[in-house]
Amino acid sequence: MLKTSLRYLMSVARNGSIRAASSELNIAQSAVSRRLQALEHQIGTPLFERKPRGVALTEAGELLYSYCLNSTFAIERLYSEIDELKGLRRGRVRLAAMESVVTSALSSAIHSFRTKHPHINFNVDILTSDKILEVVREGDVDFGLTFGGDFSDEIHVVYHSDERLYVAMRPDHPLARKKSIAVHELVSLPIALTPPKSSSRMVFDRGCAKAGLSLKPTLETNSVELMHQFALAGTGVTFMLRHAGIASVRNGELCTIPLEGTDFSSDVSIITLKDKKLPLAAESFLLTMKEELSRLPFPTSIDAPEASARSK
Q1: pTM listed for this prediction
Q2: Which of 187, 194, 195, 216 has the fewest C-beta atoms lying within 10 Å of its C-beta?
Q3: Under CATH, which architecture does the 163-266+299-311 domain have?
Q4: How many other C-beta atoms can be found within 10 angstroms of the C-beta atom of residue 53?
């Protein structure tokens, strides 16, 4: 009974309401409420504070939730250590990442890792940076790959690199031969941007604000692929990290040119929950991921046009 009650408590705490937990658990609300009441009676103190919209953990509830979370991590670690004795013959890595790293660094890292450990499976959630931070904090994934962000003490930054935003365009664009581009040169151009609350957009808007400019996007989308196609079609220019555009730069379809100024840069980071011991499969893959990110070249403004000329 206690095991079930703790599972219900964790669901209610994650979802912030009994109704949402009931839906997640596929259990009647009344049954969830009874279990929580019985657990509170057994513990001897309230675990949730009722709010106008949902519930919130009390201090005692926070302690119990933390205990449950740590117990879950410990069980995962136990299974993982058993897997290590078997030479990582089975296991699962759960991670969340920005779309921009999927087509290059992440896909390459997964291929490399599974070449050595073919029975390790992956769950990958493609999320915005703020959502990545949230699922890492909640322990829903082993680690996250994110851009920018101020991290609290509960988050451990395993890897980071200073990354700037690049202007991406076709090699025949009038600006394609420049070694760098000032943001004021883009004022009259059609541009594609991510939504306002995304990390890369906040970095871009911050740099524009310091330059006294406000650029209105022709296309605003959370799809990196759509922005990529916007530039490839010659409709206009877009902005991306080197992870997103590296394949198109290598084959000469696009060139990527750095925006001038340090205001258009931030960190790409791999983050974990500070007190969480990762399952060994995730811990091993993390090393592969760090190596893959470290090996990525920085594109230059002249590579793509030259490659394009050679391919004709």
Answers
A1: 0.65
A2: 216
A3: 3-Layer(aba) Sandwich (3.40)
A4: 6
